[in-house]
Design a protein that fits this description.
By secondary structure, the protein is of the alpha/beta class. It contains 13 helices and 13 strands. The strands form four sheets. It has a five-stranded mixed beta sheet with strand order 1-7-6-4-5, sandwiched between helices.
């Protein structure tokens, strides 16, 4: 019976380091305030007009492909997860294919819009494709260039200080080894409070959701303002074109769903938290990771956090952290690795991998 495994992994983060003290120059905040609430000390920003979500994804993908022992022409399917695509459409999957020079094979490219849990969703999809024998080398990329769409003013500080740029990639391949590779994946969503963490405009909603979902989408704008499609001057002035987040609500839901979906995966394969060799959480907030670690009774050496240095890179955060942990020798052959994510939608998921 075929199983799927991570045959190669790579990551890329831009060279430009942006510290909390750098952000103090453009908004009313402090290093202490940011670290206390998020654990973040610095993040990376891509070079405008030179780097994009796609180009960073290519850099990570090239490393993963080389480590998988294949050529780029051997890739037979692409999955690209991001919330910050180069274009509104088409998605980054075909752009990555073009940038890598593998258009002649005309392989399929799938774009995943599940934000923070995008990589987990993509991993689950790749797992199914490989296990069924449909594809042999699935390239899964998670990449973000948040810095192009953040509100660098005091008004936007609660969101802006959290996010950074970067990319991670894996090549999913078949294996016949028993109890190796991706053991199980679990995906969930609940759209009840979708607007609690969202990017409303630009969009083609025309105010529909504000009228039908009530207070969950009422940000104090008139029907006329909601009725405008895409971007107008008022939206820019009022900051309607930037991400919106109710941090406390998101935090409370995240610390509930993380342990639930981790236990779901462990119970599926008859294991317990103490069997985990390495837990790689989506790097949403260091306080969330610490809360989940305590809830699951995991030691410090069983958890990998790098949000302190990279911020929240949403769809890229798990592959970046996983690759970094593997390169540092913290993930070894035979280790049980648990991945989990929670984010906008709300969507969440988990995966167990026997390395």
């Amino acid at each position: 019976m075929l199983h799927s495994k991570i045959g190669g992994i790579g990551y890329y983060v831009p060279e430009k380091v942006v510290s909390n003290n750098d952000l103090i120059k453009v908004m009313d905040t402090t290093d202490e305030w940011i670290q206390e609430r998020t654990g973040i000390k610095e993040r990376r920003y891509g070079v405008k007009h030179e780097e994009t979500t796609t180009t960073m994804g290519v850099r990570a993908a090239e490393i993963a492909i080389q480590r998988a022992g294949i050529q780029k022409e051997d890739v037979d399917f692409i999955i690209f997860a991001t919330l910050s695509p180069d274009y509104y459409f088409p998605g980054c999957g075909v752009l990555l294919q073009r940038e890598m020079g593998i258009t002649k094979t005309e392989i399929g490219a799938l774009d995943i819009r599940n934000q923070c849990s995008g990589f987990i969703y993509g991993l689950s999809i790749a797992d199914q494709f490989v296990k069924t024998g449909m594809y042999k080398n699935v390239l899964l990329v998670g990449a973000e260039m948040h810095s192009m769409g953040l509100d660098f003013s005091t008004r936007g500080r609660n969101v802006t200080v959290i996010f950074g740029d970067g990319a991670g990639a894996v090549v999913i391949q078949p294996t016949e080894e028993e109890n190796k590779g991706i053991l199980t994946t679990h995906l969930h969503s609940d759209g009840t409070y979708a607007e609690k963490l969202s990017f409303i405009n630009p969009g083609a909603h025309g105010g529909y959701h504000a009228k039908t979902a009530g207070e969950t989408t009422d940000f104090g704008y008139s029907d006329a303002e909601y009725g405008e499609m895409f971007v107008n001057e008022h939206m820019i002035e009022e900051g309607m074109i930037f991400p919106n987040m109710e941090g406390q609500f998101v935090f409370k839901l995240a610390v509930q769903k993380f342990p639930e979906v981790m236990m779901e995966a462990l119970n599926k394969v008859g294991l317990k938290p103490s069997d985990i060799d390495m837990f790689i959480p989506h790097q949403a907030n260091l306080r969330i990771s610490q809360f989940v670690q305590q809830k699951m009774q995991l030691r410090d050496d069983q958890v990998w956090n790098n949000i302190q240095r990279y911020g929240n890179t949403t769809a890229a955060s798990i592959p970046i952290a996983l690759c970094e942990a593997w390169e540092a020798g913290a993930v070894k052959d035979g280790d049980l690795v648990c991945l989990a994510a929670f984010g906008s939608g709300f969507t969440w998921g988990s995966a167990l991998i026997r390395w």
